[in-house]
Specification:
InterPro entries: Rhs_assc_core. It comes from Chryseobacterium culicis. This is RHS repeat-associated core domain-containing protein. By secondary structure, this protein is of the alpha+beta class. It folds into three domains: about 60 residues, no CATH class; about 45 residues, no CATH class; about 220 residues, no CATH class. It has ten helices and twelve strands. Strands 7-12-8-9-10-11 form a six-stranded antiparallel sheet, with helices on both faces. A three-stranded antiparallel sheet has the order 1-2-3, with no helix packed on it. A hairpin with an 8-residue loop joins β10 and β11. α5 crosses α6. The longest helix is centred in the first third of the chain and has 23 residues. About 0% of the residues have low confidence.
Length: about 400
Amino acid sequence: MKRILFIAFAIITGFTQAQVKKNQTKPKPRVEKKWVNPVKLTKEERSRPYMDEVLKTKDSLTPEEAERRRKNIAIGNPFAKYGVYPKIATLSKGKYLEFHDTDSIVVIGSIRYNTKKGNIIEVREIDLSDPDAQPIGDTHGRWMSPDPLSEEFSSWSPYHYAYNNPINAIDPDGRESKWIPTIEFDKNKSGELTGGHLALQMEKGDTAETLAKTLNIDQKQADKLFAGMQKSGETSIDVPESIAGSINDAITDAIVNSGDYSGKENYNCFACAFKTARGESLKEDYFNYTLSGDEFQTFLKAGFEKAGANEKVFGKTILAWKGDVESKYFGMTIDKTKGFTHAATYLGTSRNGTEYTFSKNGQGINPKIETTNQLRKIYGNQVGYWNKSK
């Protein structure tokens, strides 16, 4: 028994001694020495503008090198002559000159300009049709062409590039924002559909000014509509009945009397576009009103005139497609002529350039909002724009 106790005591003692030795031989954690910038500068030198940025570097600097780097950063401040010294951060902490507009001769677009004498010394010819043409210079491409929107929105402040709201908008693509058309449903108190109407969904950055431009209405009316939307907390605006009355009637009829659209006994695209542009509804006695391509062309030439790219009017301008019209007899084509194949009504253009229309794409199909590109895929690219004659 004594022998067993002795052996157990020896094992426990040996294990304890091994643990103590292990703890004693454990290496101490390395304490990293705090880095101290070797630059020896006076208090006055350290207080110079931008020197705090230079001193962030871990390079070994002499006072002369530190001053050189400070000057490299100072070049990036055009407001120094006014006594203003904003924070300027550089990638190299002033080690390299990162601002290169300091030469007396600079290239601005296709112009070489002497900044000291203040005159143009050369007008360079650049082939802008060449996609690889690269104007050489520190400011290449700047002001190569006038801003196409320079004469728009004259009532806006200098912040109109950000839609008069530089906090929320940053001018992502350089173009004006536009409203997007959409169809909203009307319901009664029981939740049953009673119809629908045309509305405009606000894009980020849209204002009362862009609303006035989109709907072609005066600013006072646009301000009232926009204020009403903001008060209600909504992000869409109902298009005024004076503009969308006939379109709203067509939308409501398609919802309430959807069964009438299952056959071919209803109006076609030409009738829809023609009546809508004239502000007339296609319902009741006019529901079966159709126009052939030839009849549509006759009415178009008699009461409408071609519209330019900047003359398109929301809810009033007609888009008319031309293409090959076939005359068939017993399934065989006996004649093929150029004529109108489709028509729709213009509903504005979004900020990204998407053009919207109100289109009835077939007699047995409900009228709806479609993009011009969607219709181009069906009817081709030969499309013209027409406004009602004044």
